[in-house]
Amino acid sequence: MVDVLSQNEIDALLAALSSGEMDAEELKKEDTQKKVRAYDFKRAVRFSKDHIRSLTRIHENFARYLTTYFSAQLRTFVQINVVQVEQLPYDEFIRSIPKMTVLNIFEAEPLEGRMVLEVHPNVAFAMLDRLLGGAGSSPTKINALTEIETIVMERIFSRAFESLQEAWKTVIDLSPRLEALETNPQFMQIVSPNETIALISLSTKIGDTTGMINLCIPHVVIEPIMPRLSVHHWFVSQKKTSAPEEVLALQSRLHKAKLPIIAELGESQISVREFLSLNTGDVIALNKPVEELLHIRIGERLKFIGNPGTSRGKLAVQITEIVNEGADEHDE
């Protein structure tokens, strides 16, 4: 992002140039010099901008699914949005989170390795308070979770992983499963300290309580599916045809679908007065003679021509002609 100078900074710069404290030629030389950026090998860049954009897109859907899920579970206003997707070393992530927090350690088959969904204590205890009948406020002093509180937390976040599974469906079918719930980051070592991770930060608001939910995905875990996070893969996957079993399932459902079949004996027009004066035994004359063929409609479309008759003592219609698409239904 380009730095914007304030008016005071501009005035000071002009004053320095006019007084001779700064030389305009030297400033030009500094701009033309090649700028070198130091590369830290401890913070290796493993995710390209393309990967970051794909992860952002996936977890924007995840945020929407989570918003719906927690709103239904907590029965209060919940708003979750993606704030940032970045890559950094694992130990830097550990140092950035509170010493007392809620860490949901989970696996997601067929991926190998563990990931973490870290929930800020303000958010976690607001959820807990709401689930236990409170207004959804967070306590001023954060204490360790009791056994009952831990079980409640495990249940609500175990089902929250269904939202993650739904968000990743466009890339891979995951089966997330909560493995453990920790509160101390020092006891959680899922990868080496220098391992690069993708950190997805979600701003969360529950009623009047705000906080962050962080999803930590190590590079080594999603490395096998990294090619699927490219834009090219997204476009190619959209063009793929349906699998044979999907086509067969669709055909089976279509064969079981029910459609109305109507055999029209004819039409007639009467006035409202005549309609109101109809009695049992009255005869309405139709516009077709008895020997004329009948129009048979499927839904509202003319499909067949047939003869009226009986079959096994019941009224029936024998199909004598199939009407082609676009044919005039009045043509016999």
UniProtKB/TrEMBL annotation:
Entry GO terms, CC: bacterial-type flagellum basal body; plasma membrane
The organism's place on the tree of life at top rank: Bacteria
Topological type in the membrane: Peripheral membrane protein
Ranges of residues in domain Flagellar motor switch protein FliN-like C-terminal: 253-323
Keywords tagged on the record: Bacterial flagellum, Cell membrane, Cell projection, Chemotaxis, Cilium, Flagellar rotation, Flagellum, Membrane
Major location category of this protein: other
InterPro entries reported in the protein's UniProt record: CheC-like_sf, Flag_FliM, FliN-like_C, SpoA-like_sf
SUPFAM superfamilies: CheC-like, Surface presentation of antigens (SPOA)
Keyword Nucleotidyltransferase applies: no
GO biological process, alphabetically ordered: bacterial-type flagellum-dependent swarming motility; positive chemotaxis
Alphabetized GO MF terms: cytoskeletal motor activity
Compartmental location: Bacterial flagellum basal body; Cell membrane
Protein family per UniProt: Belongs to the FliM family.
Protein name (Swiss-Prot/TrEMBL): Flagellar motor switch protein FliM
Source organism of the structure: Paenibacillus piri
UniProt gene name: fliM
